[in-house]
Amino acid sequence: NAGVTQTPKFQVLKTGQSMTLQCAQDMNHNSMYWYRQDPGMGLRLIYYSASEGTTDKGEVPNGYNVSRLNKREFSLRLESAAPSQTSVYFCASSGSGGRRSSYEQYFGPGTRLTVT
Amino acid sequence: QKEVEQDPGPLSVPEGAIVSLNCTYSNSAFQYFMWYRQYSRKGPELLMYTYSSGNKEDGRFTAQVDKSSKYISLFIRDSQPSDSATYLCAMRATPSGGSYIPTFGRGTSLIVHP
């Protein structure tokens, strides 16, 4: 039971390049999230997916797109990377409440992205 | 003013000390309160969560919620160097009362020195 996994762990991009960050969870969670974490700013929600087939914007969605590929996988794409997107990116997942699950989030190990 | 306020620290204490970490909030719809621990270069790890007011104890950790003051605390007894990490508070409403997505504090850096 790996929990939440993310690939890659590290990435360096040049301005204007594109890339996709991958996330997968094996906890049968319905909801998945992408955050970025910057010094002094805390965790900021980029996009989330309440259930398979749905995605919604969070606090800082500009410059990003997401795909909920299936129940397990949720990817984050940077179409044209900018230095302001240098950050640590975390994927998280949670249940959807009710008797058998809760909304509490479980995080992956993160992807450290540098855009030069 | 952010919905959740948390002093970034760093908070430096000697081994064995009792540590108190705190957050204040402004949204009265928050009903669930969580503490996450984040080691350097790792993802946040859920440490404790409580519902509504009161105390919850788990080993050396005690989470306390005072909804009347909109103030939550995490106490660590007999602190160890391995407790050195950033502690993030998080809180959320119920789906019927607002969003189930948590709002995070910015985290407090704790250093426990031997």
User: How many helices of chain A does DSSP assign?
Assistant: 0
Q: Give the strand tally of chain A.
A: 11
Ends apart, CA distance between termini of chain A:
36 Å
The quaternary state of the protein chains shown equals heterodimer
Number of discrete helical segments of chain B: 0
Biggest pleated sheet of chain B = 6 strands, mixed
Terminal CA distance of chain B reads 37 Å
The unreliable regions of chain A are none
Helix and strand succession of chain A?
A: EEEEEEEEEEE
The run of helices and strands of chain B is EEEEEEEEEEE
- Category by helix and strand content of chain A: mainly beta
Describe the structure.
The complex is a heterodimer of chains A (116) and B (114). The model of chain A has no long low-confidence stretch (mean pLDDT 93). In chain A, 0% of the residues lie in helices and 50% in strands. Chain A is globular and about 45 Å long. Chain A is mostly beta strands. Chain A starts with a strand and ends with a strand. In chain A, the strands form 2 sheets. In chain A, strands 2, 4, 5, 6, 9, 10 and 11 form a 7-stranded mixed beta sheet that branches. In chain A, strands 1-3-8-7 form a 4-stranded antiparallel beta sheet, with no helix packed on it. Chain A is built from no helices and 11 strands. Chain B has 114 residues and is mainly beta. Chain B contains no helices and 11 strands. In chain B, strands 2, 4, 5, 9, 10 and 11 form a 6-stranded mixed beta sheet that branches. In chain B, strands 1-3-8-7-6 form a 5-stranded antiparallel beta sheet, with no helix packed on it. In chain B, strand 6 and strand 7 form a beta hairpin. Chain B is globular, with a radius of gyration of 14 Å. Chain B starts with a strand and ends with a strand. The model of chain B has no long low-confidence stretch (mean pLDDT 93). The chains are: A mainly beta (116), B mainly beta (114). At the A-B interface, strand 5 and strand 10 of A face strand 4, strand 5 and strand 9 of B.
